[in-house]
Amino acid sequence: MHNLSFRIAAASASLLLSLPSQTGNELIFVGSSTSGSTDQHALVESATGSILAESPSPFTDNVTGAVWANSGRKLYVGQSLMSRVAVADWDGTTATWSTLYQATGACYGVQFDSTRNRLWTLTGSSGSSRELVCLDADINSPSYGTYLTQTNSLSGATLERWCLSSSGNLACVPKAIINGNAFTLVDLNPSSTNYLNIITSTNIPGTFSAGFSFTMSCKISLDDAYVYVLWAGIGASSGLAVWDITAQAWLDFDVMIGHQDLPLTLGAPNRMDLSLDRTFAVVSGQGGSGWAGRIDFDYANPSNSTFTQWSTLTAPNCDGISLSPDSSRVAMTSTATFLSTPSKLIIADASSGIQLQSTTLNTMWNVYFTAWQDASPIADYTPFGSGCTGSIGTPTLTAAPGSRPAIGSTFDADVSNLPLGAALMATGLSNTFTSGGLPLPLSLSILGMTGCTQYVDALVLDYFTGSTTATWSWSIPNTPVLFGARFYNQAFSLDPGANSFGFAASNAATGKIGF
User: Fold this and answer.
1) How far is CA 405 from CA 40, 395, 411, 485, in A?
2) Each residue of 128-157: pLDDT tens digit?
3) What is the pTM of this model?
4) What structural domains and CATH numbers belong to the chain?
5) What are the Cα distances from residue 304, in Å, to 241, 252, 263, 296?
6) Do 134 and 121 meet the contact criterion of CB atoms below 8 Å apart?
């Protein structure tokens, strides 16, 4: 597979070398919310701490959320007082701001569905009428930036903090002030019969003993298995609740009778982020002199989960916190107390909490939001097309459980229904044309493989073996130029009983190299 790695790198180099950042030196957008109509924002290099821009703008006034898209070329920002979603086009040197969508009320947060090129924001004419609104974020679409659809069943409670799953299929929209049925999960999968509707609405049991409490932040794991809700009660009564989507139950973080969320006794937690593999979360808070730390999860025995405060960090009024695209570093904001001291952006190691960079933001206060530029996407592997029938069934190609084409790792794909335990894996860079110029998909009936279809260019062929299911493996080099590159697979099972040619074809799959 080294030949394929070289060809993918060569094909990707011209595009990826023009990216505004490479992994390890992503930009970090820092947003604020103060007063007036031209709040300050900053763009900071994560590896050096250098400020590339720190200026006021009406497009970053009262920031409620921000997200990067299109390989770090677009930055979308939700605004409350301006009641809009703003967009910045970043060319590597300068951000050019404009209005993407003008709403009728405050826009709380923005989230990008990279699978469907859609942008979601939470907005409405009042605090009790907010719904999730979907915008066309396909930069090649003639309707880019326009309204597509929305939910219609969330109204009736003040909603502010929310999150979208990486798949784009789920959103968690909890009530800001916690009371009955404060936890709400919404179906955003267009192919689902529950599309745009609430599918789960329940209490957050750990808040019962806290009395008056607020939802501060939430996240959904990459595999759509768990939802995490950070809540803050009065005084030191705060916690993190974790919802198991499959079991439809909350994780209980103690061994005593009754339910206990994971307690956070340092006071006033306000933000959290979750690692790609969901093994840990990072949390910030303003209690005491300000704090930040890490939660390591044990899903089999939740009571063994641990919270570790990063006591070596000095971050007064620690507001915002977010993980780098590869979950190795964390960005935190230490906000000034109304201009009496400068605000700071702190970059730290996500394992140890050791400070790596500290950038003084002289002109900013009430600095509470950070967003990492993601020029290096999350890896994915998606099947498409249909295989043809072999002697023991249709060969089926899927990613091995838990495997994805992450850079610097070994990616495994399984092929089932192999009568002789042997197959060829075709890998290429196209599913529209072969290297010889023939259009794809291509019928293989002319070869005697009746009913079989070739979906991908067979740039490289690998022979691999196993039993009735065999695993094809690819050691992906740790080469940043491969980030975002897309490849295509299709397996061909050695099967003399299938047809006169002696092979049966599987479905195809497309993979994207990333984290």
Assistant:
1) 39, 21, 5, 10
2) 899 999 999 999 899 999 999 999 999 777
3) 0.76
4) 380-512 (2.60.40)
5) 15, 11, 13, 9
6) no
